[in-house]
Amino acid sequence: MQQPIAAAPPPVDFAAGKSRVEIRNVTKAYGEEWERQTVIEDLSVTIEPGQLTVIVGPSGCGKSTLVNLIAGFDFPDSGEILLDGRKVTGPARDRMVVFQETALMPWQTTYENVVFGPKLRGDLKGKELHDEAIRLLAKVGLSEFIHKYPLQLSGGMQRRAELARALINNPRIMIMDEPFRGLDAMSRGLMQEFFLRLFEENRRTNLFVTSEIDEAIFLADRLVVLSNRPASMRKLIEIQLPRPRHYTMLSSPEAYAYKRDAMAILHQEAMKSFRSPSSGGKAFKVSGGGGH
Amino acid sequence: MSNAAHTIQSAPVQRVRRRSKFERWVSNETMWRGVVAIIGFLLLWELGSRFDELTGYRLPFIGLVPAPSKVAAAWVTVLPKPGYWWSWYESFKRVLSGFLAAMLLGIPFGLALAVNRYFRDIFFPPFEILRPIPPLAWVPASLIFWPTNEMSIAFVTFLGAFYTIVINVLGGARSIDVRYLRAAQSMGASQWDLFSKIILPGTLPSIFTGAAVGMGITWEVVLAAEMISGGGTQGGGGLGFFIWNSYMGGSLPQIVVGMISIGIAGYLSSSAIRMLGEYFMPWRRLF
Fold first, then answer.
1. Model ipTM over 0.85
2. How many CB pairs lie under 8 A apart between chains A and B?
3. Smallest Cα–Cα separation from B113: which of B183, B206, B184?
4. What are the residue ranges in chain A where pLDDT is below 50?
5. Which of A157, A179, A130 is nearest to A11 (CA)?
6. B204 shares contact with chain A (CB less than 8 Å)
7. Does A154 touch chain B (CB under 8 A)?
8. Could you tell me the pLDDT band of residue B100, with boundaries at 50, 70 and 90?
9. Of A88, A114, B32, B169, which has fewest CB within 10 angstroms of its CB?
10. Between helices B82-115 and B238-248, what is the axis angle to 10°?
């Protein structure tokens, strides 16, 4: 555990995860013409290399849609997403997503889940692959659970297994989509600290999406506050809290100031969703197309 | 070597001895409650059907059913006869052939419906039109268009399991969590990888559910088909025919023997499927 993560030779060199993602004027809408809902509107954010960028926004504001676009599971209607200057055209191992809840394959053991990616691609084999998997599983504290199935693990263990599964692919950027949602407060706090230690070891470019403001401030180098749907950038806050971080920093006056700053915007944005007409209301405005 | 083994044995680690499967079985309260319940049920049945011998008053319905002791006696007389075992063999043969054919055709068909939109657009509508037709409604038609009785029974049996298996496989494959597919795609999975490593194992539970339900339907259909086709020169035999024959011969206890035999046969079949399921899906037998 004392060994820094960078000590072992990474299987593929991606400049040690120091990659930049540029989101340029991205707009994304869903639904048929008459009930089209714009989820993201003209959003431009840069995820800086080696930084932990946290995106926070009111629930339902389009954060998961943004994750899908960056990961390449879906494509923007206009605008573009660039990874180190190259346009994102689909999912690839250079952008690993850790999903909400858990997305470990239930039919594979923890170990099988972790070696899944390299085994598919064949870029890491035999003893090399085995050693790397064992090292990462030890790193996330699951050495004794490698042959358990995901359903036999606790929520926190599942998230850690998923971190190992993503890390073994040595992605250029880690995308965390509300990864600790659904955990109880205690496990959540522990997972946040654990995750920070992992990040601070090698500072791989990281995008972390959450709806929890405390979590956001605790983790972030840069905090992106999104507007209510359709999502666009409301404010970029540079979080200057020193690293390594400790949870007691959350009660410092600086952290409190950041929180008040972000909360003011979030509150404003969240209130909009109460005022704005529902999709049903919008549907009534459309004329023509046959009456009911 | 023996020295090393000795050190391990003499290590002062006190381990709780794991009880054998038999010990756990014997000390299982649920099991004993079940045994008592079955014995109680048999006693009530015995009393009910012998009520007139004791009081001179015959209970309605149950009074006409042969007592378990008479059924047991009939069973003992039937057990050494090869005809009885031949009935088992015939029925099992039909169930297995129909069931296996339904699995072999139904699983790929269901998976193809699930993964390919064009295939689904073309084949799902006719499938849904044919599906509500009960398998037994096919009996007269299949007697006409299949050359032998045996083949028409096999066909009707096949239909019984086929629809259920296809619907279960289709539903199971379509409801696989999209995040599994996405995670695999991010890690570089090809279309074939997605199918073989995500969709197939993800559908296994539904395949076994479909198999268990389908197996039950298969037994129902085989029995009915055997009774309908009667004891002709071909396509005769089987446990269904055994019951029908006992009915024609007026042997009430033997009818019940046939019924219980079918119960046992069905139980054996579903146990086999359950065991296969546990073998192929180790992640489902947790804790």
1. no
2. 66
3. B206
4. 1-14, 279-292
5. A130
6. yes
7. no
8. very high
9. B32
10. 130
Decide: helix, strand or coil at residue A219: helix
Distances from the Cα of B157 to the Cαs of A174, A264, B100, B123, B195, in angstroms? 53, 68, 10, 21, 30
DSSP β-ladder status, A205-210 and A173-177: parallel
Q: Is B118 helix (H, G, I), strand (E, B) or coil?
A: helix
As a whole number of angstroms, the distance between CA B152 and CA A2 comes to 72
Whole-structure pTM over 0.90, yes or no?
no
- The minimal CB distance from B193 to the residues A105, A106, A120 is found for A120
**Residues of B whose CB is below 8 A from A97:** 182-183, 186
Q: What's the one-letter identity of residue A62?
A: G
| CA atoms in the 13 A half-sphere facing the CB of B119 | 10
Q: What is the C-alpha R_g of chain B?
A: 26
Residue A271: both structure tokens together: 């209130």
Quick: pLDDT tens for A126-169: 889 999 999 999 988 899 999 999 999 988 899 999 999 999 99
Measured distance CA(A239)–CA(A219) in Å, rounded:
9
Q: What CA–CA distance (Å, rounded) separates B179 from A100?
A: 9
| Alpha carbon of A233: minimum distance to chain B alpha carbons (Å) | 27
Tell me the backbone φ, ψ of residue B6, rounded to 5 degrees: -65, -45
Which tens digit of pLDDT belongs to each residue from B4-20?
Answer: 444 444 455 556 677 78
Two tokens at A63?
A: 């954060």
Judged by DSSP in three states, B85 sits in helix
Shortest Cα–Cα distance, A148 to chain B (Å): 9
